[in-house]
């Protein structure tokens, strides 16, 4: 479907290819997508339920983890059902408005997760460097304000993208070689000048995710300095162990994204379907594995999960 205006023809409907070059394998590819989505839904929902219902877990670290699980649910639900619809029902069509809505929630939720990981690093810094003042610094009121700031930052920085895309005329193509909509990928279909889109996207990346990574790195440098001042080796190991889950989640969240971003720039021979699958891993892996990592490595959550499951069996 197209509409005409003073600048020519503009597409209002777009079509997804899915995984280019592997269209005949879509049913098989859908299996890990579906399993990952079910695990993400069940794991994150269970984690949110346990943290909200168990007063013993109403501590800053677990409240931030609850926020992270909520963001994981939103991110996985914004992306994986769309991919499954393509794989199972050949539902490749999407309107421009739906596409912009999808990319808005994907980008804003990604920035939210990055912000939550930053405040979780701040939480570990306070817990290790100022243990006696931990509960007086990170009060529930402050945690609530931090949550609002994360929400406003993520949605506030992505909101202008809606207007930057709506002003464009899409006359080049309307075929996405992916399973989801993405800001610059949509903008590239335009015949207009998209430099504003490019530079604003670059600004958002620098002022949010890149800044978060730098601050997380600084937080952990300060944490390591404090830990190595502890005289007891066992105490050092125990203290570092409290950061283990968070470090795993950080690597899982930023690692695939960095690899996916730099691969097409330095490995020009890479096949398109490999890059699309890598981009999918950026969403699938963290949302599925985050609750598993915290469930296995955090004793308090592990005990509460066991208690809930035992109660259901009884």
Automatic annotation (TrEMBL):
Protein's job: Putative odorant or sperm cell receptor.
Organism name: Bos indicus (Zebu)
Pfam family membership, one: 7tm_4
UniProt protein name: Olfactory receptor
PANTHER family: OLFACTORY RECEPTOR (PTHR26450:SF386), OLFACTORY RECEPTOR 56B1-RELATED (PTHR26450)
Keyword Transmembrane on entry: yes
Transmembrane parts of this sequence: 27-50, 62-88, 100-122, 142-165, 198-228, 240-262, 274-296
Major localization listed first in the record, in broad terms: membrane
Protein family according to the UniProt entry: Belongs to the G-protein coupled receptor 1 family.
Location of this chain's protein in the cell: Cell membrane; Membrane
Highest taxon, organism lineage: Eukaryota
Membrane topology note: Multi-pass membrane protein
UniProt keyword annotations, A-Z: Cell membrane, G-protein coupled receptor, Membrane, Olfaction, Receptor, Sensory transduction, Transducer, Transmembrane, Transmembrane helix
Start and end residues of each G-protein coupled receptors family 1 profile domain: 43-294
InterPro entries per the UniProt record, alphabetical: GPCR_Rhodpsn (IPR000276), GPCR_Rhodpsn_7TM (IPR017452), Olfact_rcpt (IPR000725), OR51/52/56-like (IPR050402)
């Amino acid at each position: 479907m197209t509409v005409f205006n003073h600048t020519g023809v503009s597409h209002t409907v777009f079509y997804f290819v899915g995984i280019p070059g592997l269209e005949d394998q879509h049913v098989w590819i859908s299996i890990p997508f579906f399993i990952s989505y079910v695990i993400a839904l069940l794991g994150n929902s269970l984690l949110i339920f346990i943290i909200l219902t168990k007063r013993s877990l109403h501590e800053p670290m677990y409240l931030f983890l609850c926020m992270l699980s909520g963001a994981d649910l939103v991110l996985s639900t914004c992306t994986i059902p769309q991919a499954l619809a393509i794989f199972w029902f050949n539902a490749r069509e999407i309107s421009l408005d739906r596409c912009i809505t999808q990319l808005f929630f994907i980008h804003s939720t990604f920035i939210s997760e990055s912000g939550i990981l930053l405040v979780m690093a701040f939480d570990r810094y306070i817990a290790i460097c100022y243990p006696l003042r931990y509960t007086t610094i990170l009060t529930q009121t402050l945690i609530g304000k931090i949550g609002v700031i994360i929400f406003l930052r993520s949605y506030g920085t992505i909101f202008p993208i809606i207007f930057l895309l709506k002003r464009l005329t899409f006359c080049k193509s309307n075929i996405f070689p992916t399973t989801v909509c993405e800001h610059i990928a949509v903008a590239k279909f335009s015949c207009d000048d998209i430099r504003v889109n490019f530079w604003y996207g670059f600004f958002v990346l620098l002022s949010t995710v890149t800044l978060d990574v730098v601050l997380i790195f600084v937080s952990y440098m300060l944490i390591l300095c404090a830990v190595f001042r502890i005289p007891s080796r066992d105490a050092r190991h125990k203290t570092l162990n409290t950061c283990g889950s968070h470090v795993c989640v950080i690597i899982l969240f930023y690692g695939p994204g960095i690899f996916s971003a730099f691969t097409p720039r330095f490995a020009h021979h890479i096949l398109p379907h490999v890059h699309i699958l890598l981009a999918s891993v950026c969403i699938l892996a963290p949302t599925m594995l985050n609750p598993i990592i915290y469930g296995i490595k955090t004793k308090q959550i592990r005990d509460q999960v066991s208690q809930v499951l035992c109660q259901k069996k009884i």
